Amino acid sequence: MDAPWIWLIPLLPLAGAAANGLLHARFLGAGGGAAPERRASWLGVGSVALSFGVCLAAFLRLLALDPEQRVLRASLAPWISAGQIDVAWSLAIDPLNAAMMLVVTGVGALIHLYSTGYMHGDRGFAKYFAYLNLFVAMMLMLILSDSLVGLFLGWEGVGLCSYLLIGFWYDDGEKADAARKAFVVNRIGDLGFLIGMGLLFWQTGSFSFEAVNDAARSGGIPSGLATVAGLMLFLGCCGKSAQIPLYVWLPDAMAGPTPVSALIHAATMVTSGIYLVARLADFFTFAPGVLPVIGAVGAATALFAATIGLAQRDIKKVLAYSTVSQLGYMFLALGVGAFGAALYHLITHAFFKALLFLGAGSVIHAMHHEQDMFRMGGLRDRIPVTFRTMTVGAFALAGVPLFSGFFSKDEILFLSAASGGGGWLLWAVGLTGAVLTAAYTGRLLALTFFGGPRYDTRKLTPHESPASMLTPLRVLAFLSVAGGLLGLPFHLFTPLHDWLHPVLGGAEAAARGEAQASAALEAVLMLLGGGAAVASLYLGWKRFVQDPGEGLLDPRRGALRHPAAAWHVDAFYTAFVVVPLKLFAAVCAAFDLLVVDGAVNFLAWRSRESAEGVRSLQSGGAPEYALWMAAGAVVLVAGLVFGAL
Amino acid sequence: MLAAYAPLLAWLVLVLVFVTGLLWVTDRIGRPRPATGKADTYECGMEPVGDAHRRFSVHYYLVAVLFILFDVEALFLILWALQARELGTPGLLEVGFFLAVLAVGWLHIWRRGGLEWDR
Amino acid sequence: MPGPLTPSDWLLAAPLLWLAGGVVAILVLDAFRPAARHEAGLAFLALLGAAWSLWPLAEAAGEPLEGIPGLPVRAFSGMLEASPGNAVVGLLCLGAAALAGILSLRSLCRLESGRHRTALWTLLLVAPAGMLVTLASSHFATLFLGIETLSLPLYVLSALRRTEEGSVEAGLKYFLLGAFASGFLVFGMALLYAGTGRMDPGAVTAALEGGALARAGLGFLYAGLLFKLAIAPFHLWVADVYQGAPTPITALMAAGTKAAAALALLHWAPPAGPLGSGAWALLACATLALANLTALNQENLKRILALSGVAHAGLLLFALAALQAAPGSGASVEAAVNFYLVAYGVSALAAFGALELLERRAGGHAEASALRGLGRRFPVAGGILALAVLSLAGIPGTAGFLGKYFVFAELVRSGEVGVALLGILLTLWSFAYYLRILVVLYMKDAAPAGGPPAVQDTPAAVALWVPAVLVVLLGVWPAPAHLL
Q1: Global pTM?
Q2: How far is C286 from chain A (nearest CA, A)?
């Protein structure tokens, strides 16, 4: 059904971005002050909040429709129409992206609100909100577009905003480098995305999701090509959603302001890879061999990143690796055809990881920009609200029963165990990862909030953050608990899955086939998972509350020295990818300088020589011009009369 | 269809032959008797004075152009006049409108002094 | 005897009536109140009215207008014919006149204490009227009338700075050669009529079966049209005239005249026409090569932009080559040509407009040496000129890129891949002089400020944003001007 007003959803934040950009330009020289900051806050938070309101309206409109007909469409205008290519500026909201847009605008609005406190007094306050609003607009474009081209526009747009915000404090060289790294690594993934998109267009003649999914369902795409296209698209997802082998940018991306890490690098942008696979669920299901690869990569990333998370000293780095690991769980779910479970975990993760990041931001704020957990300790009494809310988030992340993360992660593990084939292996890997997750979560709580202070108490008195920062924490803490209600186990109460069923049901049935498991197995696995998580969380907390264990990370003798160095992946990439590439580039540069430039210079020299000759035509004399015209006319006439032309 | 133009071509050729022939004949039978008077611009009558490249007042050109402009309008009027009865009142109105537009131009020239000779 | 005017007639006549009405109003007012300065206001009112009356046609993409049968709209017993795409180009012509007017407000209007005001504003209304007639002409009478109506005002406007040698030279040269070309045109029409007995575009195809007379007529007709479009070897006047004419007028010529002449040529070169795709491609390549070569060593930015215009006209002929190679592609070729004209038009308007502003800062010179580094000193005008130059060069993301893309896509689709590759190579060659403009604009050692301080020209600076924004907008969203 047509609903042109849904264009407001991305356009409102876009307008906010433009307004804030103007605000920034105007007050650049004025040196800040309270008034421009207040205006920027209103614009920034207001535009996203309004957009959330429109999202709610759209959601209610969808709810009123018959489940099979739940689609809102809005076509603004034709965009590119050249030959076969026909792309329009059009949006389509169905249950899948409705769920996504509510998360993006809802969590986004909370994080915007939080940012007004966190960024207070920053020189680039309005610029920050311009970027952040632009990000939300682009993210909504990505989610709501009805074609791959529109999604790609958003995909690149959020990449750009991510780059701008990671390097927001660009006068720090390290941060600027981190931004560049994120951009370049994502380029590799984008290349895969483009190739996949091109292959699909070549085969189906359309960029629209519906056409691609329909073609896949009806067997309109040859299987070999579908596999290649699927893997290429997944490479794009690996870049954007930080999976092996392209995850390396995300930990570095923590250089950006902490709310940015919460919004972009935990809750929304990094989940767009999951969204893409779910969006094209039918296609991925029917592309032979792609889903197993996705599942394997997801499981491997989940475990791998969790080991690294255990051995970080920077509180944000722990959360970054945790994000990589949790995204791995989502891909694991996609890989076993549990698309709904992936979306479920995506949503709960958005709640509790945003909460953890914002809590970490609050801690960092209190500690005057200290991020090293070994320089914290005992903050429990100093910043009690932050402590309490973060504990909720940590319990959800660790998978403590009755918290939202428990239900969503448990569902993923159960469905992978029940998926037949190598399902038990995936389950085992996933469970190990979950145990490690609980352990590093316990470590994070212990190092930050328990024990005695390991900072100079004379110089620094940590204080609780302002209300603008605590309100989002409280709301997200509530959601981190209540989010579990979206999908309770044993089919007790599953509103999210029922909601998504019209979109994903077909693909799930096709991907999972007859794989069914008994409720007894589910109960056993749940007890096992929940018990392991609680035990591991307690042990992790216990181990580090007594002794912070800084020595474990010692680069030479520490027991955790390898995970602490992220398993030397960056060094490996430098040695085997970056250095050879640079050598190759040097050779190319030499070739370019000597051979190509030489040839070009020669051509240019020849051109200039002949240009002198031709220029004499342009004598400035009207009679001569007339003569040339007459000659031209004679040639034309003669040619036409004698039929030579 | 070019054949239709054959008489024209024949006439052209005849003219050329006749004219060049006459000139040729005069040249052959006449006897050249050069004299100073013959080299003059006018063999008889007024004596030429000064240079032919004289400067005219720019008003001369202005008036000439304006004359041609309004002269051509008479051409259109003739076409209308020939059919005036058949065209009836609509035709009269149309030609009236045409003249009115022209009158605006004339009015403009007149008011801006284009018709004043010594200005 | 033709009956009363039909709705179609009114539709196509309305913009002309607005413009003519503006002219009459200005003349009457000037006759009785020479001191009152109402010319500019009346002229803008007339241009706005014309655009307003043309708008419905431009908007009627794909569906006929209410009460008017069929698209393209045919009026005056088929003497005028215009599609929605043509109407968009028509809007471009009106916009070009308006921009030329705005750019003149603080310069040409004040020339010799403003004594040429009336001439300037009336002629600025007559020229676009001629363009509108030309681009919709489908009869010898309207074609000739249109071309003369657009040319005569431009002859005068080119020479408006009558105390400056270059301007007078430009006007005279344009007039002499233009008259020469008009001679070709009208002679060609006469021969075609004599040979085929027709005066509509059907005469062109009929001439193929006709005798030598009609075919010779075709040759003269095309010679006349190619002069207006500035195709080699009829292009030599362009550099001198564009350089000498006041820059606002140059902008109008570049955007408007070219568009009108190109659409006229498209009307009068139907598919399966007398000149095959090879001939058009040859003309295109020759024009591109000559224009590019000549532009390489130029020192005057206005001259470089003029030659760039020649190159762009040459590139447009590739579309005609495509049409000849694939006669069934009429609609999409027309869409490509319309878009190309709009894309080139807005780029040229932005380029010449920005150059005019920079020129004033450099004491009225467009020499590279006088404009050195001005892009840094005047970031807005310099930025717009740089953007326009990027669009003229065809950098992706600008309207110019898509214009070229659509034309070459037509060529490739018609099967002329080799020609397309050659054309692209020739286009790439032009980057050399486009880049040079950028280098000059942003050169480190800026030229010393010369001449008297320029007048602050807010209207021009504001108006320039319109073509600049369009360059970007059409570069990402071509649909409004690419009507299939």
Answers
A1: 0.72
A2: 12
